[in-house]
Design a protein that fits this description.
CATH class of the largest domain: Alpha Beta
Strand content: 15-25%
CATH architecture of the largest domain: 3-Layer(aba) Sandwich
CATH superfamily of the largest domain: P-loop containing nucleotide triphosphate hydrolases
Radius of gyration: 20 Å
Strand order of the largest sheet: 3-2-4-5-1-6-7-8
Number of domains: 2
Largest sheet: 8 strands, mixed
Distance between the termini: 47 Å
Shape: globular
Number of helices: 9
Number of strands: 13
Structural class: alpha/beta
Length: 317
């Protein structure tokens, strides 16, 4: 228990993160540590592009659970965003390990990516635990792309997704991570043009969210965003108040950057985690190690992660 003054002196929890995308900052959209946030849109509208652009431009430690897009395409998109080149050019340069594309990718050391689909909520926790083992701290941003790619057992999908959002909210608060979940919308808004209200998010799992952004296109294909929910700023649950978000889909660059000061977002102080209860909480979920695989931790009967973060089958199985 704390007094208000004691709580005010805590500078290590719930801080605003850098908002490098000017269009979002201009509308008061700031992501905070310890919160769950949602970006919702129809398939192919630009959710992954915006999330990837945010992580690359913010330059803060990020974990990208890429469950929806193949590895090669995601790497290509990241390289395009970093270099401003077209896909065909990047594809050619990816065949040459000494190319400028590899130099650009090598500089994005703040990003770690997991490529796997059909994961469970336990697998997501494992991804986070693997990141902690590899980096010695929690990421500041954790993007889950896409909610539909999380496997469910037993419960109806809508109920299972709601349970997952509740679990992610607990994890975000316990670890001081900003979680950004990408998800789809209801069928009536799948044309990519119709304004998406807060109630249009698939299965309406928005109760835990701090910020909910919905993305659409205008008739010319330009990307628009609406702030359907924002606990610390102006929002429009109807989704009708839409604003342009400059994105060049030929180069995958999200335009219009701003300084941290303009976004009201000083870089947060991330808690030191060695020997803390939240690390022990993750470690309690998996304790066995494999002597043959190097640094590897067994999960369940045969799932494991290796030192490079790959989740697969342990060599002993």
């Amino acid at each position: 228990m704390e007094t208000l003054v004691q709580a005010a002196r805590r500078r290590d929890e719930g801080n605003p993160l850098v908002q490098p995308i000017k269009a979002l900052a201009d509308q008061g959209v700031v992501f905070f540590a310890g919160t769950v946030n949602i970006i919702a849109a129809s398939p192919g509208c630009g959710k992954s592009t915006v999330a990837l652009g945010y992580m690359l431009q913010a330059e803060i430690n990020s974990l990208y659970a890429c469950l929806d897009t193949p590895r090669r395409l995601t790497v290509c998109r990241a390289a395009q965003a970093l270099t401003g080149q077209y896909q065909a050019v990047v594809e050619d340069q990816l065949e040459d390990p000494d190319s400028s594309v590899f130099e650009a990718l090598a500089k994005a050391t703040h990003m770690s990516i997991f490529f796997r689909s059909g994961v469970s909520s336990k697998d997501l926790a494992l991804m986070l635990g693997a990141y902690v083992e590899m980096h010695g701290e929690f990421p500041k941003v954790w993007v889950i792309d896409n909610l539909k790619n999380v496997a469910y057992e037993g419960d109806e999908r809508g109920v299972a997704e709601q349970k997952l959002m509740e679990e992610l909210d607990i994890i975000a608060k316990r670890t001081n991570i900003c979680v950004i979940v990408l998800t789809h919308v209801l069928g009536a808004y799948n044309d990519g043009v119709t304004a998406i209200p807060l109630s249009g998010v698939m299965n309406q799992n928005t109760k835990e969210a701090h910020v909910v952004l919905t993305l659409t296109r205008d008739r010319d294909g330009n990307l628009l965003f609406a702030v359907a929910k924002n606990r610390t700023g102006i929002n429009d649950p109807s989704g009708n108040a839409r604003h342009p978000l400059a994105v060049n889909f030929r180069t995958m660059q999200v335009g219009g950057t701003t300084s941290p000061d303009a976004a009201r977002s000083p870089r947060p102080v991330q808690r030191q985690i060695p020997n803390t209860w939240d690390v022990r909480w993750f470690q309690s979920q998996y304790e066995q190690s494999c002597s043959s695989c190097g640094i590897i931790v067994e999960v369940g009967e045969d799932l494991a992660y290796t030192e490079d973060g790959y989740i697969g089958r342990c060599c002993e199985h």
